[in-house]
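Check this:
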Amino acid sequence: MTQAGRQSSPRNGSGRNSSGRNAGQGGTGRSSGGGFSGRGAGAGKRNFTQGEGRPFKASKPREAAPFDADNPTTAEDYNRGQAARSSKPFRKPGSNKPGFGKAPGTPGALKPKPKQAKQFGSKAFGSERFGQNLGPVRKPGRNRGPRQEVPQSELHDADGVRLQKVMAQAGVASRRVCEEMILEGRVEVDGVVTTELGMRVDPTSAVIHVDGIRIQLDETLVYMVFNKPKGVVSTMEDPEGRPCISDFLKNNKNKGERLFHVGRLDVATEGLLLLTNDGELANRLTHPSYEVPKTYLVQVRGPFPQGVGAKLKSGVELEDGVAAVDSFRLVDSTPGHVLIEVVLHSGKNRIVRRMFDAVGFPVERLVRVKVGPIGLGDQRQGSIRNLGRQEVGHLLASVGL
């Protein structure tokens, strides 16, 4: 590039001075040199006159909020919502489902929803370790007749102890929580619901239920669970010198107590045995009229063909009559072995083994895991534990005590 070209180049400082700054001093701005306007005699002020020829565009109006009949913001919206509601026909929930309006029990009718039990804030015996997941209280199915209405004044014992104090001493809850249970109508005294905080009762004779759970006030009564191992005889003493129940009570604080074992398990059968000195409870648990369910795990050789479970539920012929299980469930299956859960209320001798022998599947191993509402859980074999008060209440309620 020549010397003249470098001097006239826009990158050259002398060129900018000659076309911009010098022109600004002369009042003509940069319009003659660079095509820009607005800087020069105006002392740096911008000129917005270039857009005068463009058409004016108005800003878009803000969209109005959608009308919500349930949340009116003005009186006009409120009136519109009332009109919309009055014009819309009322429809019951579920009216668009097929079968709506049909009588319950007819083909195609909607199934009624099960009623949920009322939930209370405080649970009876809620601080105990055992008995938290026993479910609702199971009462015997036998008809005991209508409950008699007794005035609460007749249940009051002037020389007795306040009801809430008796409940607190029995381990139901704190005295304040027991008062709330009484006011909520959750407490029965001798079969009558009471809501009076000032009621006094005799702890030695009163029968108290909380949420259907019987409170055992007699501290001399003992209730225990024994996980019997295989080879132990279901007796307190054995003349042949075989291992028996009393051998496992040597280190128990109730060693000298005269206890009943509820039901029997043969020598080869393992599992749950109830031990108690409550004679009335023991008699009712073993009486067939109360139909206390017992749950067993049965191991037999596999494979187990279909139809055998239905046969056991319908009944099989034994030497002392027809016997049937209440429920049958396949729990596990391994090569050559099958584990089955059966529930039955019969207390006949060796009933489970005889039933499986009758259908052609002799029992390899048999364990009783549950009697009524009481289960073994993770209790180790050969151990004995005392039942919690909530467990005792469920057990008493299951036989109508």
